[in-house]
Amino acid sequence: MLRFCGIPTGICYQKLCSGQEGVNRKVLHGLNAVYLKDLNRWIRLDARGNKPGVDAQFSIEKEKIAWPVNKERGEEDHQVIFIEPNPTVVEVLKRSNNRKELWAQWELGLSDLFGTGS
């Protein structure tokens, strides 16, 4: 709808770690991005929905997404904003029948999205 109104939008990704203690699983989290011409910048939006302990909100002053990255855990934001879903991400999702298979795919393509190899 935003694109129809002439507002540039895109998709960006975060590499997060599983919330389970002692489990070293990577999680790919997708965000929406919207370019606000009047501010001359991109704003990331987290449309995942809120629940107890998760309070993502739209804000032009301070980003308030569901999962801010924790660099100490090896988490990171992918700086590229894609105009459509990243083809590697789409392919990995198509190949995975469940979460366990998706986690196994991390080293087979998703790590390249971040250029860190892990």
What does it look like?
- The chain is built from three helices and four strands.
- It is α+β, with helices and mostly antiparallel strands and 118 residues long.
- The chain has a domain at 9-83.
- Strands 3-2-1-4 form a four-stranded antiparallel β-sheet, with no helix packed on it.
- Strand 1 (9-17) and strand 2 (26-36) form a beta hairpin.
- It starts with 8 loop residues before the first strand and ends with a helix.
- The model has no long low-confidence stretch (mean pLDDT 85).
Uncertain segments: none
**Major sheet, described briefly?**
4 strands, antiparallel
The averaged pLDDT comes out at 85
Task: Work out the helicity level.
Answer: 10-25%
Helical segment tally? Answer: 3
Q: Strand share of the residues?
A: 15-25%
Distance between the termini: 35 Å
Radius of gyration from the CA trace?
Answer: 15 Å
Q: Based on helices, strands and strand pairing, what is the structural class?
A: alpha+beta
Give the overall shape. globular
> How do the strands line up in the largest sheet?
3-2-1-4
Instruction: Give the helices and strands as they follow along the chain.
Output: EEEEHHH
Count of extended strands: 4
